[in-house]
Amino acid sequence: MGLGGTAYGNAFTPHMVTARWTPETGWTEPGLTPFAPIPMHPAMVGLHYGQVVFEGLKAHRMRDGSVALFRPRENARRFGHSAARLAMPALPDDLFLAAAEALVAADGAHVPEDGGSLYLRPLMFASEPDLMLRPAREYTFLLMAFATGGLFGDADSIGVWVCHDQSRAVPGGTGAVKCAGNYAPTYQAQLRAREHGCDQVVWLDPVERRWVEEAGAMSLFFVRGGPGAARVVTPGLTDTILPSVTRASLLDLAGDLGYEPVVERVSLEQWRKECASGEMTEAFSCGTAAVVTPVTRVCDRDGDWVVGDGTPGPVTLALRDALLGVQTGRAPDPRGWTRPVPAA
Ligand SMILES: *Cc1c(COP(=O)(O)O)cnc(C)c1O
């Protein structure tokens, strides 16, 4: 997963939050502790059979110096869906939110001042030591955070490589939830994208291998027409597309900016032809970590093509600016997406 800006996926803040679940006790109250390694039984179920789900959300430094979480309820709800899919107990949304607030309150000083943010990583794994193939009877919830760098510089554009022979997700599978097992199987294709001089993999639908679904672990958008009459297009959610909070937010913001948000699948062939004809002017990927990243180049087995003029387009940059504006308190927040966290 590209993390955008100057990201340090291993520079963790001083604290973490932990809670445990057993059938007898349910969830314990999430507790704040110093960030430290955790004891682990060699037969822990999560390690062997992948009963592991996670989330990713951010806390931003606001214009007035305070810190606010961005749409944390959406992540809490999705965490519950992910857990249910892997036959894991739900962490109540209120415990999820309390954990996020406790960590941000304690470590808010680590949110960089220059438009930086804290990336929060909630994780739940089966911690029962037992090698029987059945859902575990003990679970651990952890929440940790690291600082990511300023995002107000230029958005770096990326090139993407189309994968035709592997699938990120399959119908009836787990592609629409954030379970740990979804990610390592994408790394081989990611390495191949790199060999082709590209930054991310484009995933096609796994049945017809015709429709464009996601880029790496990010949602994909396309722009038809110019800023005056732009249509901002993204495929509809299926069980092979992760319901991204950033995607949903950008569809709303596209309308606010006077663009037409369109939920419609786009084929690889359309992508190529419409870039050649000029009908498609921009493309971008998005997600919590990467925010909005312009996609300016596509590498396919039948040849490469450039999107628009090969540089980040105005609609992409306006959407990115609008999203960062709400997240950082620079723009109004009529939908109540930001959740202020008082310092501890
Ligand atoms: C997390 C994720 C996204 C982005 O979701 P956000 O809620 O916007 O961060 C997109 N695709 C996949 C596969 C993901 O795992």
TrEMBL record:
<comment type="pathway">
    <text>Amino-acid biosynthesis; L-valine biosynthesis; L-valine from pyruvate: step 4/4.</text>
</comment>
<dbReference type="InterPro" id="IPR043131">
    <property type="entry name" value="BCAT-like_N"/>
</dbReference>
<dbReference type="GO" id="GO:0009097">
    <property type="term" value="P:isoleucine biosynthetic process"/>
</dbReference>
<keyword id="KW-0663">Pyridoxal phosphate</keyword>
<comment type="pathway">
    <text>Amino-acid biosynthesis; L-leucine biosynthesis; L-leucine from 3-methyl-2-oxobutanoate: step 4/4.</text>
</comment>
<keyword id="KW-0100">Branched-chain amino acid biosynthesis</keyword>
<dbReference type="Pfam" id="PF01063">
    <property type="entry name" value="Aminotran_4"/>
</dbReference>
<keyword id="KW-0028">Amino-acid biosynthesis</keyword>
<dbReference type="InterPro" id="IPR043132">
    <property type="entry name" value="BCAT-like_C"/>
</dbReference>
<dbReference type="InterPro" id="IPR005786">
    <property type="entry name" value="B_amino_transII"/>
</dbReference>
<dbReference type="GO" id="GO:0004084">
    <property type="term" value="F:branched-chain-amino-acid transaminase activity"/>
</dbReference>
<dbReference type="InterPro" id="IPR036038">
    <property type="entry name" value="Aminotransferase-like"/>
</dbReference>
<dbReference type="GO" id="GO:0009098">
    <property type="term" value="P:L-leucine biosynthetic process"/>
</dbReference>
<keyword id="KW-0032">Aminotransferase</keyword>
<protein>
    <recommendedName>
        <fullName>branched-chain-amino-acid transaminase</fullName>
        <ecNumber>2.6.1.42</ecNumber>
    </recommendedName>
</protein>
<dbReference type="InterPro" id="IPR001544">
    <property type="entry name" value="Aminotrans_IV"/>
</dbReference>
<feature type="modified residue" description="N6-(pyridoxal phosphate)lysine">
    <location>
        <position position="178"/>
    </location>
</feature>
<comment type="similarity">
    <text>Belongs to the class-IV pyridoxal-phosphate-dependent aminotransferase family.</text>
</comment>
<dbReference type="GO" id="GO:0009099">
    <property type="term" value="P:L-valine biosynthetic process"/>
</dbReference>
<dbReference type="InterPro" id="IPR033939">
    <property type="entry name" value="BCAT_family"/>
</dbReference>
<keyword id="KW-0808">Transferase</keyword>
